[in-house]
Amino acid sequence: xxxxxxxxxxxxxxxxxAVSSAFDAxxxxxxxxxSFRPTAADAQSLLDSxxxxxxxxxxxxxxxxxxVFEAGVQVVETxxxxxxxxxxxxxxxxxxxxxxxxx
Length: 103
Prior knowledge:
Layout lengths: L1 H34 L4 H60 L4
């Protein structure tokens, strides 16, 4: 029984240390946040940089979408050309078979 009791005591001690560490980290974070007092210029700068970043992401997504679209168009055109060639060859072959006597 002594072994189990020691394990439970050790577990409780580690749990208290973890809670204490988490509380210390939380109070440090809150202290940092409350000491930060942005000015109107800071807020405006943050707003501008946030929207600037969003604009760059959106522009990059637009460029990517255009590239995918252009690649898709090229694939469709190539497949269409190949289908036309196969169709023309099939029509030619069928025409020969119907016009060739004895076949």
